[in-house]
Amino acid sequence: MKNKLFLTVLLSAFSLFPLFAQYNNWAIGFQLGEPSGINARKYFGDNKAFDVSVGTYGLFYGRDRKYGKGYYQNAGFSLRANYLWHTALFKKEQVRVYYGFGGQINSRRYYFESKNAPGQNESDDKISLGGTGLAGAEYFVDSSPLSLFLETGLYVELISKPFFLHPQVSLGVRFNF
Q1: pLDDT value at position 23?
Q2: Which helix (H) or strand (E) holds 140?
Q3: At residue 25, what are phi and psi to the nearest 5 degrees?
Q4: Could you tell me if 161 and 36 are in contact, meaning their C-beta atoms sit under 8 angstroms apart?
Q5: Which residues in the chain come in under a pLDDT of 70?
Q6: Domain with 70 in it: what CATH number?
């Protein structure tokens, strides 16, 4: 029932706001990939933006992954923020490319061999912090507040396992207002 209500409200909002997609205000949307979750963006002037993603880390790839002296075997929580520079591709405002840098904090369950009982595994919640680099392209749909995006990047962990690398790729949709 909640899904039907959400879909009805979302479709009503799109039909009530016959706006052209704009890149100089706010945008909120959803992305799938790494990370997956809610994405919000604030555009500043002609070529700058601040982007925040809240959602999962390691859901689609990297779930079963060696980490330090143990491994990850699940998805966790992620908060990523990047400062971006963007520009029109080939002077067409409908397609914009962007790149930027920022940071990310993650929380996942970490599994390792028990020191007290060899052959047995223990687990611990692990908080990690690192830097991110991001590049992508965004297509603004004609006569619509929607934009579609595809982005790729890299997470480089600084705390708690320095230089642990995790590639990030996601695609999504944003509602621009």
Answers
A1: 54
A2: strand 121-140
A3: -130, -130
A4: no
A5: 1-24, 61-64, 71
A6: 2.40.160.20
